[in-house]
Amino acid sequence: LRLDEKVRVVVFKSEVKGVFCAGADLKERAKMDDAEVGHFVKRLRNLMDEIAALPVPTIAAIDGYALGGGLELALACDLRVAASSAKMGLIETTRGLLPGAGGTQRLPRCVGIGLAKELIFTGRQIDGQQAFSMGLVNHTVPQNNEGDAAYQRALTLAKEILPQAPFAVKMGKLAINRGMEVDIASGMAIEGMCYAQNIPTRDRQEGMAAFREKRPPQFTGK
């Protein structure tokens, strides 16, 4: 996906009705020794980092349970859409663990330190509406009979992104992600570098031409 220039947006959804991702298989985990657990979680953390580093926008469609590593997967995405009936939580402390695939870092960056600590310390599960009210998800929707309401809303959101200039969207994502990790002066410099890469693109010229000619732009990602 990272290398496929035709990919504009990636939507993560489950094929299991009622479950986005239920997290680790604790029965499987119980059979591992300490070293194996450490190696397993390190690989999981690396996977989440790779998802977060995808150059195109990513959307998690949470139509059911997103618990532990399942919520960490959703947090690794840029945007999250949840059914109001979905259940989310970093429940690791209820099993004698702590989030180990990015949860302790991505949740506070998403909802703030205080709320993140409360959710992680208590292992509480929240529904889609509660998640929306605290900014954990971008949109919440009532679940439908098919059980894919969040996925359908995620597709609508993806279709809003698709017509926009692909390279500009990629540079926007890069500028935001890198800029959030540094002071604002450094972030401004990062934005400037990303903008400079966008200036010579054909899409920028097309955007200007379409505006002058009062027509929809036809972006190619070049």
Automatic annotation (TrEMBL):
<dbReference type="GO" id="GO:0006635">
    <property type="term" value="P:fatty acid beta-oxidation"/>
</dbReference>
<dbReference type="InterPro" id="IPR018376">
    <property type="entry name" value="Enoyl-CoA_hyd/isom_CS"/>
</dbReference>
<comment type="similarity">
    <text>Belongs to the enoyl-CoA hydratase/isomerase family.</text>
</comment>
<dbReference type="InterPro" id="IPR014748">
    <property type="entry name" value="Enoyl-CoA_hydra_C"/>
</dbReference>
<protein>
    <recommendedName>
        <fullName>Enoyl-CoA hydratase domain-containing protein 2, mitochondrial</fullName>
    </recommendedName>
</protein>
<dbReference type="GO" id="GO:0004300">
    <property type="term" value="F:enoyl-CoA hydratase activity"/>
</dbReference>
<dbReference type="Pfam" id="PF00378">
    <property type="entry name" value="ECH_1"/>
</dbReference>
<dbReference type="InterPro" id="IPR029045">
    <property type="entry name" value="ClpP/crotonase-like_dom_sf"/>
</dbReference>
<dbReference type="GO" id="GO:0005739">
    <property type="term" value="C:mitochondrion"/>
</dbReference>
<keyword id="KW-0456">Lyase</keyword>
<dbReference type="InterPro" id="IPR001753">
    <property type="entry name" value="Enoyl-CoA_hydra/iso"/>
</dbReference>
